[in-house]
Amino acid sequence: MSAEAADPGAPLRRRSRPRIDLRRLGRVALRGPVSRDRLPDAISHVAEAHRAHHPDADLTILRRAYVLAESSHRGQMRKSGEPYITHPLAVTLILAELGAETTTLTASLLHDTVEDTEVTLDQVKEQFGDEVCYLVDGVTKLEKVDYGAAAEPETFRKMLVATGNDVRVMSIKLADRLHNMRTLGVMRPEKQARIAKVTRDVLIPLAERLGVQALKTELEDLVFAILHPEEYEETRALIAAATGPDDPLETIADNVTHTLRDAGISAEVLIRPRHFVSVHRVRRKRGELRGTDFGRLLVLVGEDADCYAVLGELHTCFTPVISEFKDFIAAPKFNLYQSLHTAVVGPEGAVAEVLIRTHRMHKVAEAGVVALGNPYAQDPAAPPQTEPSDERADPTRPGWLSRLLDWQESATDPDTFWTTLRDDLAQDREITVFRTDGGTLGLPAGASCVDAAYAQYGDLAHTAIGARVNGRLATLSTVLSDGDTVQPLLAQDTASGPSPDWLDHARTPAARIAITGWFSDHPDEAKPDPEAVDATGPGAQGEPSLEREAPGGTAPARSRSGPRPTGVVVDDPNAQVRLAGCCTPVPPDELTGFVVRGGAVTVHRRECPAVAAMQEIGRAPVAARWADGEGRESDAGCRVTLVAESFGRPRLLADLTEAIATADAAIVSATVEPPSEQRVRHTYTLRLPDAAGLPGLMRAMRDVAGVYDVSRAQHPAPTG
Predict the structure, then answer these.
(1) What is the separation, in whole angstroms, between the first and last Cα of the chain?
(2) What whole-number distance in Å separates Cα of residue 423 and Cα of residue 358?
(3) Which one of 118, 458, 632, 685 has the largest count of C-beta atoms within 10 Å of its C-beta?
(4) d(CA 254, CA 269)
(5) Which phi and psi (to 5°) does residue 429 adopt?
(6) What is the pLDDT of residues 159-211, one digit of tens each?
(7) How many other C-beta atoms lie within 10 A of the C-beta of residue 504?
(8) Is the pTM above the cut of 0.90?
(9) Of the candidates 80, 108, 227, 83, which has an alpha carbon nearest to the alpha carbon of residue 176?
(10) Hey, is 614 helix, strand or coil?
(11) Which of 194, 192, 169 has its CA nearest to residue 181?
């Protein structure tokens, strides 16, 4: 768009991409429009690039768009000295070379007219139709006079919402930023750095997620040159020194070509130079660069099956580096990328990385969503729609974009949106997990059951108490893996809310915004009392407990009731007394208590870690003892938390619960942690008729096959 941009030097020019002679085009543009029977010379190079991908394209609309853009921008100059029309021409050429269809190129020629000239959206719509108007509006910046400092984040929000309906909006924005970055050298260093940082944090991740590698790699190099000039110069010197006639990749490429020819596989073998940032990353990873580290071999074939045939020949005739093999054809990346990656050892031990893909895969790998054309073009074979729909269903809209559009609605504050957007885009890997109803959830790598709960249930996830992962009970902090099946479990008590600890496990912006919003609406709950363990149950390290499922399969509500009768006497006879859930004292444990919010006294075992934590923050202990028949007696017996350590085996959970029931104990809640090295940790909060039955209960649990230890719980002191 109208922001100017820099060329850090000729070495950043891509392999064979033609560059526009801006001065020549400027002179051509100043001549004005030509007669209707021929194409203006100024866009002849655009037409040539466009026809290379779309031989039958109608160029009439491009001519009309150029005439409007040239006449509208006439008299405007860029800071670099060229007529302003050279900028939309350059942006359009970038998209034409990537294979963009005619509508995208038309909008690209006009993308700055509404923002920088007297042309209105209504005029664009009248002359070029709804599609072009939508794209131009999508990339038009919001005015600083109206939005002030929020103009940039709100412009990106507007652009992303438009991209959700039409991914071509972001294609134009990326090409626009690339040309601006190529010419950024005319600006002040501080403005160069500011634009480069936004490009690094927002535009490059978006280019990666949309699969437009051709734009992403050049943007990375341009940002690298501006933000890290010394490292950039070092990398450029290394690449220049490595350029010569004795390229070890040439030898390996010749051997691969002959091998595939002898096997009867029709393939094109190319050397694909690494771009500057890629070389820099390899250098940081390996230290000293090898001669083959400055490029990779690219093998292009006709069909998917040929990719695997090539792989078989390479692994048969060369020594493969098995750790380098990745199959992105069977499991494509979330940005549409498909390819086989491997590495083979060539003559004299040289290791070459090899990319194997079809010509179509290569086009998509380079151009991403741009290569898919118009996602809204009607299929001639499809029946016509009888009822128009206000919502446009984009078949190319990826799951990450849908999630982004969902959470941005909740981020009403521009600063929150801007910060969260950068954090979200920094997560560059994605997993897919399955719901029990057959649906799927797309989540960033590292997402937990907290994220899955909010992704599936929205604000209802505030009442989550745990989950089943692959059929087994799991805590909400459990990190999910690609392909897991997850079933979040919700409490029946709709008044319950999330735990502050959930923010430590939430990776998705939607979950974090929802949790933060709940605490904003409930400020009294935002900082939990370190004694209020009953609000989250006995899960390890403050994690909300996973309640045992009721016979009907529905998880019971988490208990948020007040203090229970305890059979404990404290110095204040009028105080409410409750037993701490972190250590669940029972007779004859030695006791100590602390006054908590509301004036209640929470009683702990003296060796409980929470006791030391409370004393460290200045809480005075309250003397407490068992009633010995003189104080309040509990009609419901005593409550205790036990931890069972066991080896994993079938029916273990059933046998443990049977042993507990046989000992006449009732299960209040249970947590089963994910297995680690074939070992399983069970945490049970139990109610016994009498504390005297505790030793027998623990013996019965130890007698269960596979259980090697049962002990009283000693949870870490909650931080408050």
Answers:
(1) 49
(2) 34
(3) 685
(4) 8
(5) -125, 150
(6) 988 888 888 999 999 999 999 999 998 899 999 999 999 999 999 999 988 88
(7) 13
(8) no
(9) 108
(10) helix
(11) 192
Strand partners, 473: 468
Residue 671 has which token pair?
């947590």
- The token duo for 375 is 């996602």
Query: What span, in angstroms and rounded, lies between the C-alpha atoms of 207 and 219?
Result: 9
Just list the catalytic residues: 115-116
Which residue type is seen at 423? D
Q: Which two tokens stand for residue 199?
A: 């490009």
The pairing of beta strand 601-605 with beta strand 591-595: antiparallel
pLDDT tens for 389-402 read 333 444 445 667 77
Give percent above pLDDT 70 in the chain: 80
Rounded CA Rg of the chain: 33
Q: Where are the beta strands (DSSP E) in 509-633?
A: 568-570, 577-579, 591-595, 601-605, 621-622, 624-626
Q: Give, in order, the Cα–Cα distances in Å from 476 to each of 96, 441, 451, 490.
A: 48, 16, 9, 11
| pLDDT tens sequence across 414-441 | 887 888 888 778 776 778 889 888 888 8
The pair of structure tokens assigned to 219 is 């943007």
Instruction: Burial-class residue 122 by CB neighbours within 10 Å (0-12, 13-18, 19+).
Output: exposed
The 3-state DSSP class for residue 90 equals: helix
Element (H, E) at 453: helix 449-457
pLDDT tens readout for residues 629-676: 433 434 456 778 888 888 777 778 888 888 888 888 888 888 888 776
Kindly give, in sequence order, each residue whose CB lies less than 8 Å from that of residue 92, ignoring residues fewer than 6 positions away: 43, 46, 105, 108, 109, 175
The SS3 call for residue 271 is strand
